[in-house]
Write a structure and sequence with these properties.
Layout: H1 8-25, H2 29-35, H3 40-49, H4 69-81, H5 88-102, H6 105-117, E1 122-125, E2 141-144, E3 150-161, E4 168-174, E5 187-193, E6 199-204, E7 215-226, E8 230-231, H7 237-243, H8 245-273, E9 275-276, E10 279-280, H9 285-313, H10 319-343, H11 354-362, H12 372-382
Parallel strand pairs: 1-4
Antiparallel strand pairs: 2-3, 3-7, 4-5, 5-8, 6-7, 9-10
Length: 385
């Protein structure tokens, strides 16, 4: 389909990323998959390539752009190659918006140059055991010390993507108890140094998919967090979290569309090469009809994802629109990838084939960033229901 969302700069970036993936990722990806994470030094390579600095102001070592279109290219190219860039997506898509929105000039000078180079990898810690989508139910606390120099952090987090390699983690914690009128009251955000005493990484979680992305449990026992590492104002954390949900959900939507497009590509290549009953699988009418139907769904998802991207760059993407894009694109990807795996037959169930890994990677898209059920609730509310 004809697209207008990307220009020559984006396509040049695409060529660079595609070559980088072929040279630096594809040859060692099986090793990453077996290890359950990308190696730490890979993030330095992404830093050198400029991936982390695209949306960071020039004064802090970045390119100074204000767009998500280069991230969109990354989604498409990693999906096309059947690979993941470890936990780096959280570093850019989730952590950076908070730093740009909340960090003081002093904090930006401390944080952003190392962010751009990959010297400090960042993660975001919201979810706790037993809370899930109910962020307001968090139990982790951060109490201000008597001398007012630091907060004392206690609690635990789980499902923290990038948590194993992270050097700094944006931790959501209660600085005040919830009020009777508002359960969301009293949450604050902190840029916690993972080398702090009392900070520990628990299990590296064994996930169904996204195997090269390190996901961990975190624990905090009397961790001292300097007041200089409070992000934004105390007690306003929940409103800050809501501010970035649209971009997070767009990212999941666009990534899901890209996975669906990649699945069609993998399936088309496989059925063209695979011969049964004396002729390629692609020659059977059922194969043609299945791939045609999948392509039609991918075309629709691409249009939705691109429209959301343009709205996001224009700062006009509403929560309901982001929820709609996420719901639609993730459901399309679920259907398309399942059908494309079926066309692979038994080989589609083998992890050596990218379609099998894609099938597992895709499943979380309807869960994280807000489940499909939560997306429907948001959309329904916007309809006045």
């Amino acid at each position: 389909m004809r697209r207008t969302v990307f220009d020559e700069d984006h396509e040049a970036f695409r060529e660079t990323i595609r070559a980088f993936i072929e040279a630096e990722v594809v040859p060692v990806y099986d090793e990453w998959f077996a290890a359950g994470q990308a190696p730490r030094d890979f993030y330095y390579k992404l830093g050198e390539l400029g991936v982390f600095g695209i949306n960071v102001p020039e004064e802090f070592g970045g390119a100074g752009l204000d767009t998500h279109k280069f991230e969109a290219v990354l989604y498409e190219e990693t999906a096309r190659a059947g690979v993941q860039f470890g936990g780096s997506g959280v570093h850019v898509l989730l952590a950076l918006p908070y730093l740009k929105m909340l960090a003081t000039d002093e904090q930006k000078k401390r944080y952003l140059p190392k962010f751009v180079s990959g010297e400090e990898m960042w993660a975001l810690a919201m979810t706790e055991p037993g809370t899930g989508s109910d962020v307001a139910g968090m139990k982790t606390t951060a109490k201000l010390s008597e001398d007012g120099t630091h907060y004392v952090l206690n609690g635990a987090k789980t499902f923290i993507t990038g948590g194993v390699h992270a050097d700094r983690v944006i931790v959501c914690a209660r600085t005040s108890a919830p009020s009777a009128e508002d359960r969301r009251f009293g949450i604050s955000l902190f840029a916690v140094d993972t080398k702090s005493e009392g900070y520990s990484i628990g299990r590296k979680l064994d996930k169904l998919g996204l195997r090269t992305s390190d996901t961990a449990e975190l624990a905090f026992v009397d961790v001292k967090v300097p007041v200089e590492d409070l992000l934004g104002e105390e007690g306003k954390g929940f409103s800050y979290l809501g501010h970035n949900l649209a971009s997070e959900r767009w990212g999941i939507a666009f990534g899901a569309y890209a996975q669906a497009a990649a699945a069609v590509r993998f399936a088309q290549q496989y059925v063209t090469d695979r011969t049964v009953f004396g002729k390629p699988v692609a020659h059977f009418q059922n194969t043609k009809f299945e791939l045609a139907a999948c392509q039609a769904e991918v075309d629709a998802a691409q249009a939705v994802a691109d429209r959301a991207l343009e709205a996001l760059d224009a700062d006009e993407l509403t929560p309901a629109e982001a929820a709609s894009a996420k719901l639609f694109c993730t459901e399309v990807a679920h259907r398309v990838i399942d059908r494309c795996l079926q066309l692979h037959g038994g080989y589609g169930y083998m992890n050596e084939y990218p379609i099998a890994r894609l099938y597992a990677d895709n499943r979380v898209n309807r869960i994280y960033g807000g489940t499909s059920e939560i997306m429907k609730t948001i959309i329904a509310k916007s309809m006045g229901l």
